[in-house]
Specification:
Length: about 280
Amino acid sequence: MSAPTASVFVKCSCGHVHWGRYGAAGLLLVDPARGVLLQRRAWWVHHGRTWALPGGAIEAGETARGAAAREAFEETSIPADAFRAVSASVVDHGDWSYTTVLALAEGAEARVANTESAEVRWVDPDDVPGYRLHRDFAAAWPDLRERVGQELVLVVDAANVVGSRPDGWWRDRHGAAERLRDQLAKLAEAGVPDPGDPAVSWWPRIILVVEGQAKHVTPATGVEVVAADTDGDSKIVEVVARQQARVLVATADRELKRRVEALGAEILGPGTLRRQLDEL
Ligand SMILES: [Zn+2]
């Protein structure tokens, strides 16, 4: 038996009706040179003739990111390999939710690709409020506007995180760091919750800093590896100092925490990180 169709209206406790049994998702594509991609909805769809993001109902078994990417391709012909997902934010009504996936797309070509969309246009973020916007997108825009241009970098103190769990890592420090790297590669794909905002999650750039017997660990998809020749802590401070983005540092080392917090970084405890990795 197939899953019930996702393409239905939901009568929501907020008093409105929404589209999508499993909620809906949209893609906020950002091109630093051109702005954000808006779509003018065709006259015949719900909230027709208003401007909003490409998006639609989440199908059974589909992730919000998958739905946003599929809908954007169907409506604007931008393929999933033309952008990199950066963050997701959820507006949860209880009976229904909407996830906005923010992604970076440099140079992607958008065009009207199906009949649900009347026009697609790159718009300067400051000009967005001047458009006739879909009610829900207009309400969400002030928060989304703040996140345009934001990224998260997760810097991982390999020695400290590996050493946080007595699982025999001392017998093979290189192998233990490789296992951590492989788990981090899965985390790069799955995303991490925002430490301060439960409605937001990130697909971070991950930088694993290795030292000593683990210093020849190679990178993996989604995980950059930086090797410290001598002092791992100083290398981590150096890596943090050159980031433009918001930085989370996974370490429990007190002195290192003090040094990176002085640079504006936030701390993710190794225990919290390990729990997130265990859940993958
Ligand atoms: Zn609602």
